[in-house]
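note to self — DONT lose this again. spent like an hour looking for the file last time. sequence + predicted structure for the chain T wanted, 92 res
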Amino acid sequence: MGLFSKTQTNKIKVDKGYQPSTVTFKQGKPAQIIFNRTTPSSCLERVHSDSLNFDQVLPLNEKVTVDIDTSQVGEFEFACGMDMFKGKVVVK
């Protein structure tokens, strides 16, 4: 049924860091984060996570969707290109 295939979505504004800096998803359901960078800071023009296996360029004022693997419960960090700003994905 439609309920089981619905994708979980969280939006993160990228401006002086990640707002919000922590997002939560339910385990086993498709999930996405939509990043929207609104600052010209070159530090924040990239977001990556080794544990979630993504590395994405974030063009200024464009929404970028990243698929999140929710097969494992836990807390997974992501960070800007210089690892100065960090955020967290929580899967429960």
